[in-house]
Design brief:
By secondary structure, the chain is mostly beta strands. The protein contains one helix and nine strands. Helix content is about 5%, strand content about 50%.
C-alpha cells in the first residue's frame, strides 16, 4: 500500500473494502495497480493499493510470497533480509533502520 499516486505505472479503480490500519482507523482505497521499484534494476509489484491517507508505505510479506517473490528473513527470524523474484531471480537486499523501517538498497540478477 502506498499514499503516493506518482509511484504507479498503472492504476485502476478499486471496488473493495477500506483498509484497517494499526490504530484501528479505516482508510479509503482509491485504486489498485502496478508499481515498479528501481534499485537499480526494476522489480514490479502488482495489485498495490493506493491509499491517499496512509502515513507510510506498507508491504505485505504474505502478498509478496503469493506473487512470485521469495522472502528471506534473518537467521533469528526477526528481520526481513532479502526479496527474490522466483521467475526472474532478481534479488533485492533489504536493510532495517533503527526506527524499524526497511530500505531496499540493491537489486542483483542471479540468472
Amino acid at each position: 500500500m502506498t499514499c503516493y499516486a506518482s509511484c504507479f505505472q498503472s492504476v485502476s479503480p478499486y471496488r473493495g473494502q477500506p483498509v484497517k490500519v494499526g490504530n484501528g482507523q479505516l482508510l479509503e482505497v482509491k485504486g489498485s495497480g502496478k508499481v515498479v521499484l528501481a534499485c537499480p534494476h526494476e522489480l514490479t509489484l502488482e495489485d498495490v493499493l493506493y491509499v491517499p491517507d496512509l502515513a507510510a508505505n506498507l508491504l505485505s510479506v504474505h502478498k509478496l510470497y503469493r506473487s512470485s517473490m521469495k522472502v528471506k528473513f534473518s537467521d533469528d527470524g526477526n528481520m526481513l533480509s532479502s526479496l527474490m523474484h522466483k521467475k526472474t531471480n532478481e534479488h533485492a537486499s533489504v536493510q532495517q533502520h533503527q526506527d524499524c523501517t526497511y530500505s531496499m538498497y540493491s537489486l542483483i540478477s542471479y540468472a
